[in-house]
Amino acid sequence: MHTLTYPPALDTLLGLLASVFGDVNLDDLSDEQSVELLGAAEEVGRLVDASRVRLAANVTDRSRPGLGREALCVKFGCRTASDVITRVTAISVREAARRIRLGTVLIQGSDLLGAAPLPLPLDAESFLQGDLGMDSAENIVAGLVPIRHRCDPDGFTAAERALVVAATGTVIDEAAELPGAGIRFAADLVRTQAQLWQARIDPDGAAPESIVMHPRSTFGFGRLKDGVYPLRGGVTPELRGIMNGIFDTYLSARSVPSFPGEQETRSHADDGSGGSVDLTEAAAGPRSSDADTRGADEKRADILRGVFGWAVRHPQTPTMGGAAPTVMVHVNARDLADGVGVGWVDGVDAPVSMRTVRQLICAGGYRKVVFGENGEVLHLGRKERFFSGAQRRAIAARDGGCVIPGCTAPVQWAEVHHVVAWHAGGATDVENGVLLCWFHHHEIDCSGWQIRMIRGRPEIKAPPWLDRSATWRIAAPHRAATASRPDRRSAA
After folding, report:
1. What distances in angstroms separate CA 271 from CA 459, 474, 479, 482, 490, one per listed residue?
2. Is residue 47 in a domain?
């Protein structure tokens, strides 16, 4: 049985800290006093963090596997040093690993692989004295450790010195006149500076380093929380550049709803297509903004949805059992008819709403499966309510993309929507289908936008807040629908 007791000085210190910070009524402080106390608390925290890391490194060293039954962790009935630390401190395994990792590098003088002593004396000294915060110390280690064997020692030392000076706000003679001298840089800025120093003293290391890092790129899903699956992983800089290019292209595209101009409307009205737009567009109402309340992050998610949807339909996408990747959603027939309940996606634990089920059926069709009393399949019906590839191509040629004015989603990302809902008897044919992006398809029943078909062409009516005239307008046609030159024969 092991009994742990604090040194008397530590008991005294804990009492002082409790009296200083615990007895202060923060509401009685002025703004200046509040900020001053914030800084003082952080100074104490840096000293405490240094002690935490030192002790974690010490426990780890005492628990080396080579010590056998003399290892500290074995004596205390634990499997590893991390086990000891988490049991004593009640911190997470992740935080314990963080302290062990930093302490092993800075204090034990070697990295986790047992390499030669790490030449970061300034980093270690400043951290142990409480001048350097734990976040900044980690950023310096992360920026310099990977390149220490590839760069010039003098350059490495200069980089460490500059980063420690920036992170601690130390004034040195050679930098006393530079902007920012004497100001402590936040940890995020230190990380950025470390990356710049890395590129400066190891300019040839980026390519081989990217090769080493590439296999570590990961992508996965966390556990369901608040109705969504959090993403886990990371991407390489070049892949992020590619993704940013796609995101920026569509995020920067115009989001203002636009309607056919007078000349375009006149040409469609004159060709007998059933145009019903007032050519003067009198009282058209406000047209300066769209009711798209999505933030940039939500828009990026919808862009990714479009990219994956396009990939599923691409002919070169690998198949599964001879069929393209397909989202299988199961729903009870009675629930579907009544519009209640939920659906279930194969391979996903969380249910989807009946609204989502109806949208998926509208875009992708369904098959009816009849089960017997014992759960056996009695009948598998043919696919219904499904726009064929030929129908989709015809609709795409007519619409050219999402028909909602101002939407820039390309045709490859669009879904085919039944104008007259399939559950209301709408036919699955070209004259009852229009292209909508996922967002507008998902929101069509509650967004205020209305769609109708006149002589096989879609017309759109904007919500009242956007167009007070409540005018039905011809959806913008495909770019190829208008000839470059007028038809001289019809003019004659």
Report:
1. 16, 13, 17, 12, 10
2. yes
Q: Is the same domain home to 122 and 150?
A: yes
- 218 forms beta bridges with 234
The count of structural domains within the chain is 3
Tell me the C-alpha to C-alpha distance, in Å, between residue 81 and each of 41, 66, 189. 29, 13, 32
Give domain status of residue 411, yes or no.
no
pLDDT tens for 14-47 read 777 777 677 778 788 888 888 888 888 888 889 9
Q: What is the DSSP string of 407-438?
A: ----GGG-EEEESS-GGGT---SGGGEEEE-H
Q: What angle do CA 241, 246, 251 make, to 5 degrees?
A: 115
Residues 115 and 149 in one domain: yes
Question: In this structure, are 100 and 237 located in the same domain?
Answer: no
Residue-by-residue DSSP string for 183-239: PPPPHHHHHHHHHHHHHHH-TTSHHHHHHHHGGG-EEEE---BTTB--EEEE--HHH
Nearest alpha carbon to residue 126 among 55, 234, 53, 64: 53
Give CA–CA dist 44/24, Å, rounded: 16
Which of 357, 386, 415 is the last residue in one of the domains? 386
Q: Could you list the residue range(s) of the whole structural domain that residue 126 is in?
A: 30-202
Is residue 491 in a domain? no
CB 234 within 8 A of CB 452: no
Q: Kindly report, residue by residue over 269-317, the tens digit of the pLDDT.
A: 344 433 333 322 323 333 333 455 667 777 777 777 777 766 666 666 6
